[in-house]
């Protein structure tokens, strides 16, 4: 396995973690009077979206030509 493929695996794991934790915090908002759950949930969804963009453009960002 090349270093780039290993990097992709780690990015996918980070995307799944961020999306999962964002989904975990979102229902906590309904049972809470605090806005902290909304902020945490939204932040992790933004992280997941940014990592997805990074993964989709990884070759261009690293400057790898096919």
Blueprint (SSEs and pairs):
Blueprint: H1 3-28, H2 36-56, H3 58-62
How can the largest sheet be summarized? none
- Fraction of residues in H or I helices: over 70%
Based on CA atoms alone, the radius of gyration comes out at: 15 Å
Give, in order, the helices and strands. HHH
Number of helices: 3
Q: Can you tell me the residue ranges where pLDDT is under 50 for at least 5 consecutive residues?
A: none
Averaged pLDDT, please?
A: 87
Write down the oligomeric state.
single chain
Strand runs, count: 0
Tertiary shape: elongated
Strand content: under 5%
Domain count: the total is: 1
Estimated structural class:
mainly alpha
Termini gap: 18 Å
Please explain how this structure is put together.
With 66 residues, the chain is mostly helical. The protein has one domain (3-62). Helices cover 79% and strands 0% of the residues. It has 3 helices and no strands. The protein has helices at residues 3-28, 36-56, 58-62. Helix 1 packs antiparallel against helix 2. The two termini are 18 Å apart. The mean pLDDT is 87.
